[in-house]
Write a structure and sequence with these properties.
alpha+beta, globular, SH3 type barrels, GMP Synthetase, Chain A, domain 3, 2 domains, 3 helices, single chain, 5-stranded antiparallel beta sheet, 3-stranded mixed beta sheet
């Protein structure tokens, strides 16, 4: 799911995140090679507000300055995971069981590489998704991208 560089940066940040009471949900590098953007998605037990974003931006920026992941300029963005929360780890797939998810795979499984349905959780190393009454087992290692499919209730 992550590139080698993204995984290196995630490995750098994760131990520090735990000591700050923050979870690094995922990390992505986007944009031009000469001036990429590093997006770090964080979460806490109580959600993410301005204070969590500001304090996390500070220590993440310090670590990035120290690591100097790219020659030249880059942009750092620290954000909440949002309504379409990315799912990356076995813990994520178990924690969000019952939610509607969209899972994209690196190669087809039973002729499909995109699955939308109810997340059932993990079984061994497989993510289980109920797609229209059919349970699909998707190997964790074959997932390219997965996220909760956010919904709004406009009646409230």
């Amino acid at each position: 799911m992550l590139t080698k560089k993204e995984q290196e940066l995630l490995d750098l940040l994760t131990p520090h995140a735990e000591s700050h009471g923050v979870e690094i949900v995922t990390l992505e590098i986007v944009g031009a090679r000469k001036a990429p953007t590093i997006r770090v998605y964080i979460d806490t037990e109580h959600g993410v507000g301005f204070d969590e974003l500001a304090s996390s931006q500070s220590w993440i920026n310090d670590l990035m300055d120290e690591a100097d992941p790219f020659p030249g300029a880059y942009t750092l963005e620290v954000s909440s995971p949002g309504i379409d929360r990315p799912l990356r780890t076995a813990d994520h797939f178990n924690r969000f069981a019952g939610e509607t998810v969209v899972v994209k795979t690196t190669s087809p499984i039973d002729g499909r590489s995109s699955f939308t349905g109810t997340l059932l959780g993990m079984a061994a190393q497989d993510v289980r998704v109920d797609c229209d009454g059919n349970e699909v087992a998707i190997p964790l290692g074959s997932i390219k991208r997965a996220n909760v499919k956010g919904t709004f209730d406009f009646r409230s």
